[in-house]
Every structure is written in C-alpha cells, then in structure tokens.
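User:
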Amino acid sequence: MAAEGKSSLMPRGYTLHPGFPSVPEYLHLRAASGLTPKTEAQATAIPSGSWYGCYIDFVPEDVGDADGERPKPVRVGMGRIIGDGGWYFHIADMAVLPEHQRKGLGDAIVKHLLAHIKANAAEGDPYVTLFADPPGRKLYARNGFQDAAPLQLGMQMGKGWHLQ
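Assistant: Predicted structure:
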C-alpha cells in the first residue's frame, strides 16, 4: 500500500497520511470515538513514543466555497504502532469518528499499519499485539488477529497504582 494518499481501500474524499494528528485532534478522536479520554500531557508524548502512526483526513469532494476552494480537511481516524522496530509491535489508538464508521476506514488503517510493519521490521516473524474492545474485534479478526487466550492473557496495572 502506498505510504500516503488515496488507495483502493479508501472511499472518495478520504486520504490516509503517515504521521500523527495534532494534540487537540488526537484528544478529540479518542473521546468522540468512545476511547478512554487522555490528558494533553499524555497526548503530547505520542509522536516521540511511537514507532509509526497514521491518520485519515476527510474532505467532501462535492463541496467548495464561493471561490471554488475546498474546505479544510478534517481528521476522522487514526492508529499507531508502539514497538522496538525489531520484533515487537503493539497497535494502539485505533479510532474512527462515529459518523465516518462503517466505511472501511478502520480496515484501511489496520492494513496500512500491518503493511508498514511487514515492510520495515527486522527480518524474522514480528510479534504484533493489540487490545480489542468489543466493537473492534470483528475488524481485527478479519485482519488475522486471534484471541491469545489461554496461552497468553492481557493484564494491566490496577487504577491508582503507584511505585513504592
């Protein structure tokens, strides 16, 4: 898949770009798509703490102002990879605004992220993980992800934990 631009996977008016949305866009995409809200400080660290990311812009192709200029693109989806660049990769922050869901955008993001891993990971089999909320499970299964249980079980620190 091309690194940027229109693809056969993208509906008209949508363009996938490598990189990360701005901090306000990131916070909006998370909150509006139902992901746990994050703080500005947490969002600021995303580009430097990620291995790769992408986002989708939308501009209606049949809309323009009186001067014939097209409206400013709107960020409508995103995804990123946390990893070491060698063998371990974790897909995170998969989000598509509700009014743009069910158009194949999440599928395009996942396929793009997986293609980037395949093209850029060190030789050998990469280990790719993600945590799947119920609405995304069918999307991830269609793209080759399987439930890791009972061999592995995702775990997280409890809320309010602190170092002693």
